[in-house]
Amino acid sequence: MKSYDLLELAGRNLREAVLRNSLTTLGIGVGVASLVAMLSLGVGLQKLATRQLGRSGLFDSIFVSSAQGFRGVGRPQTSQVPATFKPLDDNARKTFQHLPNVVEVYPDIRLPAEFRFAAPGKPQESYLALLAALPASARKSEAFDELQGSFFSSPNAPETVILADFGRELLGLPFDAKKADQKLTNDEAKQLLGKEITLRFKERQSNAVKAETSQPEDTMNFSVVGKEQKLKIVGIVSTEPNGGTRGNARIFMPIEFAESLNMVLPSDFRNLVRPGEGKSYSVLIVRVPKSKDVAGVEDAIKKEGFSTFSIVDASKGIARFFTFLDLFLGIFGSLALAVASLGIINTLVMAILERRREIGIMKAIGASDGDVKKIFFVEAGAMGMLGGVLGVALGWTIGKVINIGTNIYLQRQQIKPENFWYVPWWLVLAALVFSIIVSLLAGLYPAARAARLDPVEALRHD
To answer: 228 and 151 in one domain?
Structure first.
C-alpha cells in the first residue's frame, strides 16, 4: 500500500468518529501538558537559582586562603600539613593575577567598625556595623538593580553605599522586619544621600625601626593608630551585593580606597604570634570570566600551595538535586500520558469492532497483515502528534498563567517578580517525540488484533 493511500485512509477513519477521536486526542494533550508543565517548572527553578547565584558574582569567584589557616597556634605539625608555608601576601596576589583566565584579584576586606552620623534635626550618634569593600565589578550584581542614588564615582572615591535597613537605623526609624529588604521611601532616601558619615577605624602603621629599649616580648612589627575618615553616602541598596554569604555587611566602600586606608584587619593580629611575616591576607578573591574557568584556575592555585574554595564546588550538590527533581517531575507528569495511552487503546479497539467488514474486504482483495497494522499505527501516531502539539501549547499556556499569577502575588507582597517557568526547545521536541512513541506503543495491541482477523469471519460480521 502506497504511503499516500495509507495516510488518506487513516485520515478518513479518524474523521468518521470525530468526537471519540477528539476526546482521545484531548486526553493525550492533557497528558503532554502535565509533563511539559512539571518539567518546565523544574527547569525554570534551576535557571532561577543559577541566575541568582551567577549575578551575585559567586559562581565566577574563587576564595583563596593560606595553608596556615589549617594549623592552630601552638599545635604540633602533622604529616598532613607541610612544614613550610607560602604566605598569602602581595607576591601571591601578583602570582594569581598573572594566571590564565583571571580577571581580577582582590582581598576580602570586611570588619566591624564604628560610624558616627547626625540625622537631620538630631545630634550626632555612634553606630556599629560590619564594613565591606567592593570592587568595581560588583556594580553588575542584582543588588544594584534597584539602587537608590548612584554607585561609586571612582575606585578611590571616599564614598559609601549603605543597606536600607542601616539607613533606617541612621534615621532613627523603628525596626520593622517586613521592611528589612525593602527600599527606603523617596523622602527617607533624600535625608541620607549626599550626607557624610564618619568612619572611625584603626590604621596599621609599620614599625620600620624598633627602639633598642624595646622589651623582648614586644614582637609586633606594626603599630595601631586611631583614625577617622569622612565618607559620602552616594547609594542605598535593599540587599547585600554578596547575598550575605560572607557575613551581613551593612555599609560598603570601594576596595581600592579601603586598601589605601590601611585599616587593621582581623588577619593582621596573626603577626602578634608570628612576627616577621609582614602584611598578609586572610582571604583573596580571584574572579574568572565564566564559571567553567573556575576548575582550571583552582588547580593552578592549589599547585602554588594554597587552599581554595568556590561555590561551583558546592553547587555540584545543587545540580544533582535539580537532576533528581526533574526526574521525579517527569515521572509524575508521564503518569497522565500513560493514562491517555489507555484511551488510545480503547479508541482503536472500538474502531476494530466497528470496521470488521472493512478490514475483511481489504484483506480479501489482497491487503496484507502488515498493511492493516500500518493503518492503525498511522492513526495512533496521528493522534499522538496532534495531542503532543496541543499538549505543548496547553503546557506553555498553563506555565505562563501560573507565572503571571504568582508574580502578581509577589508584587502585592512587595517582592521582586521572577520568571521561574521556562520551556526550552529541547523539552518541546522531547514532549512531541515521547507523545508519538507512547501513542505508537498503545497502538501495538489494536494493530495486532486487527491484523489477526480472519477475512471470512470479518465478512460475515453484520
So the answer is: yes
Give the pLDDT of residue 269: 62
Is-above-0.70 flag for pTM? Answer: no
**Interval 400-418 mean pLDDT:** 79
Cβ(377)–Cβ(450) under 8 Å? no
Residue 83 lies in a domain: no
340 and 266, same structural domain?
Answer: no
Q: 66 in a domain, yes or no?
A: no
> To the nearest whole number, what is the mean pLDDT of the chain?
77
**Whole-angstrom distance, CA of residue 167 vs CA of residue 172:** 9
Q: Identify whether 101 is part of a domain.
A: no
46 or 116, greater pLDDT:
116
Q: What is the pLDDT of residues 295-318, one digit of tens each?
A: 889 889 988 888 888 876 666 666
- Number of compact structural domains in the chain: 2
Q: Which three cell numbers stand for residue 306?
A: 594554597
Q: How far apart are CA 234 and CA 195, in angstroms?
A: 8
Give residue 25's domain range. Answer: 3-54+318-460
Rounded Cα distance between 84 and 128, Å, is 39
Residues 261 and 336 in one domain: no
Q: β-strand 251-254 against 124-134: which pairing, if any? A: parallel
CB of 143 closer than 8 Å to CB of 230: no
Whether 32 and 117 share a structural domain = no
372 and 434 inside one domain: yes
* DSSP secondary structure of 353-398: HHTHHHHHHHHHTT--HHHHHHHHHHHHHHHHHHHHHHHHHHHHHH
Contact 432, 339 (CB under 8 A): no
Q: What is the model's pLDDT at position 215? A: 44
Same domain, 322 and 275: no
Does 134 have pLDDT greater than 50?
yes
Q: What is the mean pLDDT of residues 439-459?
A: 73
The answer on 122 and 260 residing in a single domain is yes
